Amino acid sequence: MQQASEREQTTARAEVPGSGTPRVRTCVGCGERVEIPRGVRAPSPLVRLVLGPGGEVAVDAAGGGFGRGAHVHPRPGCLEKAVQRGLARAAKAKVSLLRVEEPTGEGGEALVPLDAASLAQAIVRAVDRRIGGLVVAAARAHRLAPGSDAVKGADERGEAHAVLVAVDAAAAAELSAVRRAIADGRAVSWGTKQTIGLLCSAAGSAKRAEGLGVVAITDTRIAGALQEAVRMALAVTTLASPRRAHPAGAEPVRKRHDFNQSGGASAEEVARSGQGRRADG
């Protein structure tokens, strides 16, 4: 997980606007051809998968991993079709295994049977790590405004390109700056106050033992990638597990349609990866 987190942060820093002829990628589920601007590694409407030599596949949420790639829309229907025949067609071989991290979160990997649900779960977990990496990258680049007052200030200056609200931050969701972000489509909901607080603490940008209910991202590229990642997780949440929409101890602070909302990593997962980030920093 540490290596993955470092890669997520590096990728977030490396995302630069591109130009030239767009790349075309085909969803291995529905077969739709999607144009992706060259030079822009995210946001992308497709999830990149890496095909292994032994009939296994792994999720590459940041899109920068080595290996032969395949792409799929983060939609239940596309995941079903990809597992049934799309991945095998792309690999020209049987694909029946999914490479995932060990549940202990200590950096090991395991192979599990591939089906639409296990693939959706792997996508959600990979995207969770990506979101965490983006938050840490923004904090380390001093492009993150933590807390209600800082978010209000960033909003007044027109710098709040994305507003991240914890799923258990009912009071934060009522802030005028957050309500404007919701109306403008700049607000996303992910993780708990404890999760976001741990990420910011790991980056050294804020130390809030009680957690952080809301932060603003003031970098346009990281903000765009964050919003796309949350939408991606949300798109497959139901297939991954219904409980992912409402993680233990966290109730949604607003109606689901108000936010692009994903359940997010657990505080324990973030704490483990945060140890790696502190060591890295």
Main attributes?
281 residues; five-stranded mixed β-sheet; 8 helices; 18% strand
Describe the structure.
It is a single chain. A 5-stranded mixed beta sheet has the order 5-3-4-6-7, covered by helices on one side. Strands 8-11-9-10-12 form a 5-stranded mixed beta sheet, with helices on both faces. The chain has 281 residues and is of the alpha/beta class. 53% of the residues are buried. It is elongated, with a radius of gyration of 18 Å. The protein is built from 8 helices and 12 strands.
Question: Which helices and strands occur, and which strands form pairs?
Answer:
Elements: H1 2-14, E1 23-26, E2 33-36, E3 47-51, E4 56-60, E5 68-72, H2 76-91, E6 97-101, E7 109-113, H3 116-140, E8 144-146, H4 148-156, E9 162-165, H5 176-184, E10 187-190, H6 193-203, E11 214-217, H7 220-240, E12 260-262, H8 267-280
Parallel strand pairs: 4-6, 9-10, 10-12
Antiparallel strand pairs: 1-2, 3-4, 3-5, 6-7, 8-11, 9-11
